[in-house]
Amino acid sequence: MQSDTRVDAAGETVIRCQGLDVFYGHGAQRHHAVKQASFEVLRGESFGIVGGSGSGKSTILRVLAGLDGDWQGDVDVLGHRRAAGVAPGRAYRLKVQMIFQDPFGSLHPRHTIDRCLSEAMRFHGFDRIEQRVVSALDRVGLGKSFRFRFPHQLSGGQRQRVAIARALVLEPEVLLLDEPTSALDASIQAEVLNLLMEVRRDLGTTFLFVSHDLGVIAHMCDRVAVMRQGVVVETLAAARITAGQVAHPYTRELLANCYAAQPLDPVVA
Fold this sequence. Notes:
35% of the residues lie in helices and 25% in strands. By secondary structure, it is α/β, with parallel strands linked by helices. Helix 3 runs parallel beside helix 5 (156-168) and helix 5 runs parallel beside helix 6 (186-203).
C-alpha cells in the first residue's frame, strides 16, 4: 500500500481504524469485504474514502455507524473503543450520525418532515424542539414552510437536505456520508455539496465521506484513502490528486477516468 498519512501532530484523532477486517455471510459463503484497513481522521477534518462498487468503502461506514457486526480489528471513535457484535449506545449514536445515499429510503414515507426531525431529539431529551427544527430547516435552505410536508412531496435534492437537517439537529461531532449526492442530478449535487461544505465550515463537524467519484472526493476532502477490492491501496492528500501526483496504478486509473468525465481544477501553489 502506498501511504501519505502525515497529519498535524497537534490534531486530535477522532476516528482510528487499525487492521479492520469485515465479513459478510457464513460458512462457504463468507465474504471478506474489507481487508486490514487502517486510517485515522482528525477532528474537523474531511476524510474521503473512494473506490469502485464493491470496494468496501460503504462497509467501513456501516461498521463505524454500528450497523454491521461481523468484523475484527481496532476501531476507536471519539475515544470510544468499539467492540464487534456490540451495538453502540445512545451517547455514541448521538455524536455519530450517518447520511445515506438514498434520500427517499432513509425518510419514513408516512411521517411529516417535522416528525422526521423531532423524533430523534425527543428520544435524546433535547429541549426547544420546535425551534431546533425550524433552525435546522433554515440552515439547509428549506425554511419552516417544509415542516409539515411529506417526503413524497419533495424533490430528491430537498429530501437529501432534510436528511442532512435530521442529522444536524442532534449536533453530531462526526458525520458519516455514504455517497450522499450520487442519486441526484448534477446541478442539485453541486448545491448539496456546497451545503455540506458550509456545514463543516460553520460547525467544525468531522466528515468521513464515501464516494465512487474521485472528483467529488478531491473537492470535498482534505485527505483520501483509495480502496480496491476491500484493500486501502493508497492514502494521500486531496491536493495531490488534483495535481495528478498519485502513486498507485488504481488511483491513476480513477484519476484518468475522472479527467475523461470532467477535468479537476488544478492546484494553485
